[in-house]
Amino acid sequence: MNTEQVIGIIALMGKRMEQEKEFLTDLDNAIADGDHGINMARGFAAVEAKIAPLGDKDIGTVLKTAGMTLVSAVGGSAGPLYGTAFMRSGVVMNGKTEMNIADLTACLKASVEGVMQRGKAVKGEKTMLDSMIPALEAIENGINGGLDSKDAVLCGVKAAREGVEYTKTIAATKGRASYIGERSIGHQDPGATSFTYLLEVIADAL
Amino acid sequence: MVGIVIVSHSEKLAEGVLDATKIMADGCPIAAAGGDGFGGYGTSYDKIKNAIESVYSEDGVVVLVDMGSAVMTAEMVIEELGFGNVSLIDSPIAEGAIAASLSSFCGDDLEAVKQAALLAKNDPKW
């Protein structure tokens, strides 16, 4: 896909965040501070406006601009976390005007590393990493097993959804939900959920 | 003097902590960056950046944060500014700010101001 298509996918991510705004906020209300859906919708709306005129730029510029905008416009932890993910992906795509499945996988890998570093978190703490890491692994396995791009990303979506289900079974040890600890068991993590939606948007577009 | 920045999810809390430092260190360069910048609870990259720049001098700045996105957003601002003498301190914001602002007001250098804020973390109240 080219720069315009990447911009189009990010715009669709914004539409999806707007659609899921109330659900994500309800999930967040149950275990934390109840701002995730509102913040994500506001952040991606700001991103859409900022990247719309960048069609003639490289994909790295688009992703870095998106990341910086998320950091400024989100206002909660999703800002620095998704912002870091997009900015690190921007570094991967620096100077490139075409993105293939290897690039997408490299972006996801850089995103996982960025989120782990920024959030000082690992898998199994009831965070977005619990859907991101299984999704990355599933996509890598899919490609190595000979699947085409769309099918590999669909495997990633399936793994991300399973990751969301897994977050229901564990207590939060990172993020605001860690304040309620064991009482967070039974609730799915909002960040793991929003990541799954973003990956679904990518899969639909392939 | 070393500058102090208070980052809190609550605009009122950040302003209140700043106010409390006036008890002993009225005159220390200090700025508050509270709230998400949209009138709600959260943290604002732009507010934190502006606050650091407003109290910055070659003496440096210590940044005190409450939790979560305040930590991560302040880290990102400090990385982007790249000043080298702006430090994020892991201490309670009220006690840390009072200790740090007094230390700065008394003419201590950045390292001493950082230590003053850090001591506030483990200092028993009785």
Structure characteristics:
heterodimer, A: 206 residues, mainly alpha, Serine Threonine Protein Phosphatase 5, Tetratricopeptide repeat, 8 helices, globular, B: 126 residues, alpha/beta, Rossmann fold, four-stranded parallel beta sheet, 5 helices
Structure explained in plain terms:
The complex is a heterodimer of chains A (206) and B (126). Chain A has 206 residues and is mainly α. Chain A has one domain: Alpha Horseshoe (Serine Threonine Protein Phosphatase 5, Tetratricopeptide repeat), CATH 1.25.40.340. The longest helix of chain A is centred in the first third of the chain and has 29 residues. The N and C termini of chain A lie close together (9 Å). In chain B, strands 2-1-3-4 form a 4-stranded parallel sheet, with helices on both faces. Helices cover 52% and strands 16% of the residues of chain B. Chain B has a single domain, classed as Rossmann fold (3-Layer(aba) Sandwich), CATH 3.40.50.510. The mean pLDDT of chain B is 96. With 126 residues, chain B is α/β, with parallel strands linked by helices. The relative contact order of chain B is 0.22.
CATH superfamily of chain B: Phosphotransferase system, mannose-type IIA component
Helix content of chain A: over 70%
Structural class of chain A: mainly alpha
The unreliable regions of chain A are none
Overall body shape of chain B: globular
**What's the number of structural domains of chain B?**
1
Mean pLDDT of chain A: 96
Based on DSSP secondary structure assignment, what is the total number of beta strands of chain A? 0
N-to-C series of helices and strands of chain B: EHEHEHEHH
Outline the fold blueprint.
The complex is a heterodimer of chains A (206) and B (126).
Chain A (H helix, E strand, L loop, with lengths): L2 H29 L4 H16 L7 H15 L4 H15 L8 H19 L9 H16 L4 H20 L21 H16 L1
Helix pairs in contact in A: 1-2, 1-8, 2-3, 3-4, 4-5, 5-6, 6-7, 6-8, 7-8
Chain B lengths: L2 E6 L2 H15 L4 E5 L10 H11 L5 E5 L3 H13 L4 E4 L3 H13 L4 H13 L4
Parallel strand pairs in B: 1-2, 1-3, 3-4
